[in-house]
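Hey all, sorry for the wall of text incoming. These are the two entities for the joint prediction.
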Amino acid sequence: MVHNTEHPDGIFPLVLTSVTQELFGCRTDEDVTKENPYKLLKKDDIIQDIKTRAAVSDFSPVKQIVLNYPEDELLLVYDRDFTYGQSFYLVLTPEAKNEILAPPKPETPEVPAVEIIKTPEPKPWISLGSEQEIEEESVRETRKKLRYKCFRVQRKVDAPLCFSDRNTADAEDGYLECPSYLDSRFSIKQMQRDCGVQAVPVLQSSSAQTQWKHQRNIFTVYKPRDLQEDEIENILRSEGLKDFLNLVTPRVLHALQQEEIMNVFFDDWKALGTGAEESNWSERESEVLMLYQAFTDQKYSKDKKISCINWHPTIYGALAVALSKKAEKQSTTHDVRPSPILFYNFSDPSTPQLLLECPDDILAFEFSPSDPNVIVGGSVKGQVVLWDISAHVTYLQGSQPGSRNVPVNSNPIDLLDSKENKTPVVHFCAVSALEGGYKAPITDVHWLPQTFEVTRMGLPVENQHNAAFQFITCAPDSSLWFWDIRPPRLLSYTASDVKQNADQMPQMPLYAVPETFKHLDQTWKPLFKVSLPKIDTSGEYVPLKFSLEHYTCKSMTGRTTDEAHEDDDSSKVIPDYSKLRLPSAKTLTPLEDVNTKLYVGTEHGEIVYTDWKLEKDDSGRLQSAKPLHCLRIHHSMVKTVQRSPFFKDIILTTGSWNFAIWKEGVMNNPIIQSNHSEQPCTAACWSLSRPAVFFIGKEDGSIEVWNLLQKTNEPAKVNAHVTNGKITCIKPWIASSKQHFLSVCDDLGMVRVFEISRSLYNPTKNESLSMRKYFELEQDSMKERKDMQPTPKKGNEESKKKTELDKPVKTVEENEGANMKEYNDDLMLEESILKSMGLLPATTET
Amino acid sequence: MAEVEETLRRIQSQKGVQGIVIVNSEGIPIKTTLDNSSTVQYAGLIHQLVMKARSTVRDIDPQNDLTFLRIRSKKNEIMIAPDKDYFLIVIQNPSD
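and here's what came out:
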């Protein structure tokens, strides 16, 4: 039974009473059963029933439908299961009736029934008219075939035959040719073809004959030939070897002894020492200073003079220049800003690579010998300034693209770029305390060598860290101060100062300041002070420049050289300065053999030789000692006091119009004193590679190259008018073994770097030996002069000096006279001092 | 064996002697006081030189023969004493 869940439209559920059921013969379970639920009812019967029983008829609800029903029979279905709600239902439409009675085959695909394949049975052929067409088309014999027989005439047969040749070309149609032709229809391209290949070597036999003119055995050995161990043993034992040795040994010994006795090939002429001239002969012409580069900066060095220049100790081609205002010039532009220290590099001559900001103009500065990133400088106001450039060192190497400055005016488009490429500025890390500091500008600053240290008491002790921590400054207010860059031990001392200075602290700089020396800032005070009381009179000397001896530790107590080297390596790590503390004087071993004496050049032209070790006077206080001697050689300000890099005890000093060379230990006079020159000497320096050469800069801007082994009375070469201004500083530098530079600064703010020619930097043979001999000679001659009377001494000195100009002679004479008086005084004073060492006159005060 | 050693020691004790090499007639070093590479170099090069020198002397005068060869250079002096089967090389630094 098909269940229709939805109620199709053609169905009308109907209830039939039993009376109706009997009438229509559709009693349940009798006429209509489950198996046979369909009952066809006649339409007329239903209408009859409706008419008879009217409202009571069960068919009344479908009355209209029945009336409209087109066919005669209606289907009544017994709905046993009450599918549509009632026991019967009437099918309203004939289509539905047909559908129910003959339910269409379900549309669900069924498994196709396997059809039994039957051979189709032959059916009788039905003619459709095709045989007529065939009939028409077929070809048939219409009549019987005719047969003919033909043969040749009998006499032609059995006749003798004769064969002959015939060319194909004889007869016209003798042959039929079917030439092959390229049929375009069949053009098949062969794409692949199997092909066999065989390689056949081309062999050629040839011969040549050469002429072997010089018969010679030649052999080539790839590996050195060796003998086996046992073979060697055999040979060594053999008689032949013994005989050979016996034969040969006398000859060999003879020859060897000949060598020992005399060297027959010794070139006496060459070794005589004229080798020096010989080597210089060719290069004499080129003994020059060649201008290598000139550095200046429009922005910073205009109208300024250069007060100090230093080469960077490690970076090639980097130099630092301190500028300061010229004293005479009235500044039309009130440029109150202090000039910075500029760092130049060879790669960029017109713009500085780094700027060090200074609180005031710096007159002297120096790189720390152990840590080239620490720079100490002395300013015009008497303050000591410290910089730490470790963060910016890369700019100095000159390869940084950021350091390439775009000049501001030439590139208006890249305004942004030029802003970014500004020269980096390093602010100073620490300044010394202003009150209690120097009252005068600091004119010279030198680091103590890293081999020894100085305690508060003024005693030299060993330096455990092998790094330079201390330096000395001098200023014209008559004292030399020793400073230390480590924080002092007495913390209470610094705390009170810190409180004081906290109020006075100026506005903190906005940019990053390296913290290396924070502990020193604003509170820095010197370790101790050395004053220079005058020897004979009251008052003090006014120092301008000084020079102390570089002490190299010969013996370190209880340490071998290996340990010392290890310490060197470990101390390469730059110590954190704020963590270090000044060591207690008790823990360090004092060094006895340090030369604590130094040479000081004063404002009045005197050279003072004094000891910086403090001494106890009567009251137990520590005072600085009286200078050991002092001599007025120069007329006015001493510009340079410099020790020779080759001899520890030779010092060059220059003053106003002359220069002098002193030997330490020779108390009374310089061993060499130059003549007066026309131009005042303003700067001087020793050559770093030749002991006999030094350079002097003059006020007219010329440089004199002096070679004491060539000429002693005049410069070996004068480079006139190197600059328009006057020369303020000269510093040599050895950049590599082939490049020696000399930097020359003037008071126009320009730095010129000269390359020293080979002849000027290559020392001659035994030059230092010759120089030493020369100095000793001078010393001896001076001693001779000393022994003789004063007046004949004068004459001797004059005669001993080489040719001079008239004008300088007179002034030298005058000088000599004054010097002699002083010298005599000094002699007497010296004796008295030496006798009464330790006792100081009451007039001197630090 | 000991004699050989003793002779070599005598020569070695002279002033300035840097090294001694005994080479056989084929140029193979037999005994030496230098390091291996120098020995091989000296033996090979000097062997050729000795052959050349000897042939030169004998070409000029067949009765003559090479007895001693000294090469003086800037840095040192090389002395060669040749024989029929061996030759002895001594390198000396001159006195100055």
